[in-house]
Specification:
The complex is a heterodimer of chains A (about 140) and B (about 180). With about 140 residues, chain A is of the alpha/beta class. Chain A has one domain (about 25-140): Double Stranded RNA Binding Domain, CATH 3.30.160.670. Chain A has helices at about 1-15, 55-60, 130-140; strands at about 25-30, 40-45, 65-70, 80-90, 95-105, 110-120. In chain A, strands 1-6-5-4-2-3 form a six-stranded mixed beta sheet, with helices on one face. In chain A, helix 2 (about 55-60) packs across helix 3. Chain A is elongated. Chain B is of the alpha/beta class. Chain B is built from four helices and five strands, in the order ααβαββββα. In chain B, strand 4 and strand 5 form a beta hairpin. In chain B, helix 3 (about 65-80) packs across helix 4. Chain B is elongated. Chains A and B meet through helix 1, strand 1, strand 5 and strand 6 of A and helix 1, strand 3, strand 4, strand 5 and helix 4 of B.
């Protein structure tokens, strides 16, 4: 009986401190004033701590006919867009990518021209490559 | 010892009842209160939104496109920034607001949510883009705001959205249309 009470109390604590449960979500949108197909050169701005996601994003964008360069600083030359991303990782037996947001920005104003987001919790986790593919495909699906 | 356990049990029961799982951001709570702007444009406005997401039964609070649209429209009407709101393909100007990123904590006491949206305003008669702006905002809710985590997160999302809408509409009010 006492164990059961403790279990319920623990559940209550989790309900108090946590924000939600399991979910899968994938969205993508392009600003109506943006012609995504006109963006032929992009620069993927690498997050300093990241060792591979930026490469996966660059490779996926290349399959869309975009010439892609990467780096951690501001782009050296003129590009049509700068690509930023936020990848969130979680541990459940192994590390996995919980959420990925990719944003294609105007290089001069930082305005978000297009954005995509995927969120998959542990049981339906995707590999980083699959996450990148899903997000980029959803962005291009939203293009005019 | 038994009293302590019973106390925890009571807390657990209350938090589970008050908490639940799904808790979408409420459109009325996302509408800025008492927003004043420096200009009142004699034009009609069409509002469209994107990048948001529905809140599933097992999800944490999200901003639904239709709720964000309703909150922006309500704020425009209340502030009298534009003369009228129109639906469909009519209107003098079209405002597009897309949720670019919504960063939410998954655990903790005080929740701070970071929101970035892309605002673009287009003059429909000649399709000229008169404003493009990235609007960043944040919203915080503490344990004193709500005991249940899901409620606290929803309140933080709503606060971030209110701030975001205020900033976006004030930026439009600075334009000369």
């Amino acid at each position: 009986m006492r164990k059961a009470m403790k279990l319920v109390a623990l559940l209550g604590l989790v309900a108090t401190l946590s924000t939600g449960c399991a979910v899968n979500r994938a969205t993508g949108s392009v600003d109506p004033s943006t012609n995504l197909s006109a963006l032929k050169t992009m620069y993927v701005k690498r997050v300093a701590e990241d060792d591979n996601t930026y490469n996966l994003i660059a490779d996926k964008l290349r399959t869309k006919g975009v010439t892609v360069t990467t780096g951690t600083d501001a782009p050296a030359g003129n590009v049509d867009a700068v690509v930023t991303y936020i990848d969130k990782w979680m541990w459940d037996i192994t590390m996995y990518m919980l959420e990925l947001t990719i944003t294609i920005r105007d290089p001069k104003t930082d305005f978000p021209l297009a954005t995509g987001n995927s969120f998959h919790t542990s049981l339906t986790r995707l590999s980083p490559k699959e996450m990148v593919e899903e997000v980029v495909e959803n962005i291009y699906k939203g293009a005019k | 010892m038994r009293a302590v356990v019973l106390n925890w049990l009571a807390i657990a029961a209350i938090s589970l009842i008050l908490g639940g799982c799904a808790s979408p951001a409420d459109r009325a709570a996302m509408t800025p209160k008492d927003l004043t702007v420096s200009k009142h444009f004699p034009y009609s406005l069409k509002v469209q939104t994107g990048g948001g997401a529905q809140t599933g039964a097992m999800d944490s609070s999200n901003i639904a496109d239709e709720d964000l649209k309703a909150a922006i429209e309500e704020a425009v009407v209340k502030s009298k920034l534009f003369n009228t709101i129109v639906q469909g393909n009519d209107g003098d100007y079209a405002l597009s607001v897309s949720v670019t990123s919504l960063s939410k904590p998954v655990f903790g006491g005080t929740f701070t949510v970071e929101l970035e949206t892309a605002w673009s305003l287009t003059k429909l008669s000649d399709r000229s883009v008169v404003m493009r702006k990235s609007v960043k905002s944040s919203g915080t809710a503490t344990m004193s705001d709500a005991f249940a985590g899901v409620t606290r997160l929803r309140m933080a999302v709503e606060a971030a959205t209110r701030s975001n809408i205020s900033q976006g509409l004030r930026a439009i009010a600075l334009l000369n249309l």
